[in-house]
Amino acid sequence: MDTPSPPQLRPEHLAMMERGVSAIVGSCSRALVPSVMRALGYRLAGGGAEITVYLGRSQARQLLQDVADTGRVTVVFSEPYSHLTVQIKSARARVVPVDGGALAELARYQAAMELQVGLVGFEPRFVQAMLNHDPADLAGIHLLADVAFDQTPGPQAGQALSPNPSAA
Amino acid sequence: MSTACLPLSALRACLEGAIPSMMATTAIDGTPNVAYISQVFYMDEGHVALSFQFFNKTRQNILANPRATVLLLHPVTAQFFRLHLRYLRTESAGPVFESMKAQLAGIASHAGMDGVFRLLGSDIYEVLEIECLGQPLLPDAPARCSLLGSLRQTAQRLSACTSLESLLDTCLDTLQALLGIDHAMLLMLDPLTQRLYTVASLGYDRSGVGSEIALGDGVIGVAARERTPVRISHMNSAYLYSRALRKSVQPGEGAIPSATEIPYPGLHEPHSQLAVPIVSGGRLLGVLFVESPQDLRFNFEDEDALVVIAGHLGAAIDHLRDSTQPADAVAEAAEPAQSLAVDGPPLRVRRYQANNSIFIGDDYLIKGVAGAILWCMLREHRTRGRTEFSNRELRLDPTIGLPDVSDNLEARLVLLQRRLREYGPDLRLEKCGRGRLRLQVRRPLELSDVAA
Questions:
Q1: Dihedral pair phi/psi, residue B407, rounded to 5°
Q2: B22, B62, B118: which to substitute to probe chain A, counting the most A Cβ within 10 Å?
Q3: What is the pLDDT of residue B242?
Q4: C-alpha distances in angstroms, B11 versus B40, B67, B300, B301, B311?
Q5: Is B39 on the interface with A (CB under 8 A)?
Q6: Using CB atoms, which residue from A24, A32, A132 is nearest to B34?
Q7: Which of A150, B193, B242, B276 is most buried, with most CB under 10 Å away?
Q8: Long-range contacts for A14-18 (Cβ within 8 Å, ≥24 apart)?
Q9: Rounded-to-integer distance, Cα A143 and Cα A25, Å
Q10: In the predicted model, is pLDDT for residue B308 greater than 80?
Q11: B450 and chain A: CB distance < 8 Å anywhere?
């Protein structure tokens, strides 16, 4: 099977993702029932070509099961204040254990989100509650980006971003 | 999968649009998709409606595979919930669609998305399961325990009213005193013209009594036409509901002066509005409308409260009307009249037959059935010297042309009385016993009837 070229994220998309923004993860079962949960944080590598999202097992049991069963996942990154949104899909996802560096990443992510969500009127304690987790409950999903879509609200929403020729 | 933890009604705070919900769908080839959804609208315990705004991947997916999962976040407690849904149908007209359309305009305004968000349809979903994730970590907002008590007091005060006029005034006074609502209007439906006319108002520079709104115009007209509450939590000038009201006035016809419109009294820059239809026995009687210069002033609990009050009003209006129907209008002895001195220059009153519009001097007073009632009384007064009239004779007078016996004559009389009071002291209409009215004329009358 050919390995798809990773999508070429626009600079504004990648910069947004690197700032630490809302990340919502979805998958589906073999019976085509969708599953969805908010990520507690994420790690980017290769200019967004590789992503690891972190979730609480107890709140994302079905989602983790679906990814393990199908290898399919989608993640929507969105900046609450600007509505800048990008969706990245992968059919090459797997559930991975959480390594020692994740906790520091999650702490940095929470601090970033306190700023982001604060811009739309919510207090830090709301973000802290929203992202609250037990470290022992954490799981990761690692994915290789296959396709990406601009999902910023507007007439262009849904347009696929072109593949990155240099990464083919 | 978790079992249902709460009834859907307990999640209504999540559906106010403060935090957008996320919707997951699946293509027929198994590719998942996640998208923000502007609106999850509570229909009943088993159904929600989601806003269909764009022909996008979500749309394609649910038409091919009706299963959807929506992630909700409580805006105060930060607790997550998942709704497991099955798509049933799309509605592009009717009460749910109109309520959502108005609410979406408010959400769009709040999100800076005016012009981008447009409701193409209301996608109706069956709720298969509600999943509660974890426990709330933050305390919920204190329950508005006073709301039920306020409703109780409102119901008691309304139940004590013995006339339509006192019912309308008591309703507005109570909204202000018990619910802190400072701007409100009560409008009644004219079944002949299918327009709503203002009979009472609260908190405006001018009362606007007699101002009219067509069914379907603005928040008020849509609530009436669709018989559903319409609530907007963020208004801005891009959404023309409030302007539509001002534009709904109609030009003059033929020989009738065009100034036969009373200006709509509403707030110039409302930020929150809520209109609730007043229905009794399945018939639309009018609309209870409240507004505020603040964003987010009215939430779903205010809507619930006003629906209860409007229901009570509807029953009370019908009851009071029935108690003055011809069959049981027991003639009461009229209160003794005080003789009035009639002097000064003549009061010139014109009636235009085409629409029964009445002018005093050059000032427009009233038109339609209320105009016909006043003209009938003035004619009787001039030719026979009469000052007292019964509701019964007005109801049966063929020259007045009430549409049918169920017409709310009382509401038209309240409108007429209030317009005369606003005009001045020379011509008044006051109650003088149950089902009886007295015309008070303080200047000589000069009547002229203008043919159509």
A1: -60, 145
A2: B22
A3: 42
A4: 11, 20, 11, 12, 25
A5: no
A6: A24
A7: B276
A8: A14/A47, A14/A48, A16/A77, A16/A79, A16/A82, A16/A84, A16/A86, A17/A42, A17/A44, A17/A48, A17/A77, A17/A86, A18/A44
A9: 11
A10: yes
A11: no
* Of B306 and A161, the one with more pLDDT: B306
pLDDT, tens digit, for every residue of A30-47?
999 999 999 999 999 999
Contact between chains at A34 and B26 (C-beta distance less than 8 A): yes
Give the residue from chain A lying closest to B137, CA to CA. Answer: A129
Record: contact B71-A24, CB cut-off 8 A: yes
Question: Distance between CA B91 and CA B89 in Å, rounded?
Answer: 7
Contacts of residue B57 in chain A, CB cutoff 8 Å? 149, 158
Return the half-sphere exposure (C-beta side, CA atoms, 13 A cut-off) of residue B195.
Answer: 18
Residue of A33, A37, A132 with shortest CB distance to B137: A132
Q: Which residues of A touch B83 (CB under 8 A)?
A: none
Which residues of A have a CB under 8 Å from any CB of B? Answer: 24-28, 30, 32-38, 58-59, 62, 70, 72-76, 78, 83, 85, 87, 89, 91, 125-126, 129-130, 132, 149, 151, 153-154, 157-158
Give B-chain residues touching A36 at CB under 8 angstroms.
Answer: 22-24, 34, 69-71, 82
d(CA B164, CA A21): 57
What is residue B108's DSSP assignment?
Answer: H
- Closest-CA distance of chain B to residue A42, Å: 17
Both structure tokens of B4: 């249902």
CA angle A86, A89, A94 (to 5 degrees): 130
Instruction: Write b or e for each residue in B64-86: b if 16 or more Cβ atoms lie within 10 A of its Cβ, otherwise e.
Output: ebebbbbbbbbbbbbbbbbbbbe
Judged by CB atoms closer than 8 Å, whether chains meet at B22 and A36 is answered as: yes
Which amino acid is residue B41, in one-letter code? F
Q: Is B178 left (phi over 0), alpha (psi -120 to 50) or beta?
A: alpha
Q: What angle do CA B2, B5, A32 make, to 5 degrees?
A: 40
Q: What does the pLDDT look like over B39-98, one tens digit per residue?
A: 899 999 999 999 998 878 999 999 999 999 999 999 999 999 999 999 999 999 999 998
ipTM of the complex: 0.95
Q: Per the CB < 8 Å rule, is A62 touching B32? A: no
pLDDT digits (tens, 9 = 90+) for B104-158: 776 666 666 656 667 899 999 999 999 999 888 898 877 666 889 999 999 999 9
Please give the full DSSP string across B15-41, using - where no structure is assigned. GSSSS-EEEEEE-TTS-EEEEEES-EE
Task: Among A59, A74, A126, select the one facing B34 at the smallest CB separation.
Answer: A74
The token pair that represents A73 in the structure block: 């996942």
H helix or E strand, kind and range, residue A147: strand A147-150
| pLDDT for the residue B329 | 46
Instruction: Enter the tokens of residue B116.
Output: 């981008």
Asked if B22 is an interface residue toward chain A (Cβ–Cβ < 8 A), one would say yes
List B70's β-bridge partners, or say none: B23, B83
